[in-house]
Amino acid sequence: MNPSTRPNSASDTLENNDIVIRTENVSIFYGAFQAVRNVFLDVPKNNVVALIGPSGCGKSTLLRCYNRLNDLIPGARVEGKIAYQGVDLYDPKIDPVEVRRRIGMVFQKANPFPKSIYENVAFGARINGFKGNMDELVERSLRGSALWDEVKDKLKESGLSLSGGQQQRLCIARTIAIEPEVILMDEPCSALDPISTLRVEDLMHELKKQFTIIIVTHNMQQASRVADMTAFFNAEATEGGSRFGYLVEYDKTYNIFNAPKQQATQDYVSGRFG
């Protein structure tokens, strides 16, 4: 398909009040290099949206634009519009720190602070001016990340003492403690064993009752298990030899894996390339 045209998309059937994030004709650049071209993608409230596709197709680049983490990269810029609750995230009046409070991030590699389990959860809330009962917030966040029963008797121990899967759930607890509305997850299970992966996947099903989740994953089975909507991205080479990513197809997850409209999607989900 022509990457400069808008793909047929389930976004077209969503009501405006169902949409948390609206991506309109977004292209992303690092200096002169165009990493992503002409993306239209709407994220519905209380859904899990998976971004899938081969390496280098711009999935993580797009994800980081949703909470303006790409602002931290010299030369990075976004063209088009990304609106959160109808507000342009890249309006000069918008504070990117506030964006990151409302749109939290869980990274590929668990990155707990070198602090106690309790302080890992409390830290972000404290610096954001939380005035309520911190003990209750820490417990609620750890319960929300399905970690409370495993750590409730060792809250003063270092977060670094936990297993890899527990550390990732601690990072999820730290994210939800600042009470965001959207949680971004960049391959959150890629470094985890199968049992820990299933725990995080089960957790996503629970979290979407309160949050909207966007996850980047290379694991198509994971996308089919956890996502309500799936966006398939591909990459195309330019005449100069560089590659840019573009959205091929976005639809309900069942349709992407069982009745895709684009041949490239069918080829990818059936394992013919990737």
Automatic annotation (TrEMBL):
Source organism superkingdom: Bacteria
Ranges for domain ABC transporter: 21-260
SUPFAM superfamilies hit by this protein: P-loop containing nucleoside triphosphate hydrolases
PROSITE patterns associated with the record: ABC_TRANSPORTER_1, ABC_TRANSPORTER_2
A GO cellular component entry from the record: membrane
Pfam families hit by this protein: ABC_tran
Database matches in InterPro entries: AAA+_ATPase (IPR003593), ABC_transporter-like_ATP-bd (IPR003439), ABC_transporter-like_CS (IPR017871), P-loop_NTPase (IPR027417), PstB-like (IPR005670)
GO molecular function per UniProt: ATP binding; ATP hydrolysis activity; phosphate transmembrane transporter activity
Any one Gene Ontology BP term: phosphate ion transmembrane transport
Keyword list, A-Z: ATP-binding, Nucleotide-binding, Transport
NCBIfam families: 3a0107s01c2
Record's protein name: Phosphate ABC transporter ATP-binding protein
Species per Swiss-Prot/TrEMBL record: Drouetiella hepatica Uher 2000/2452
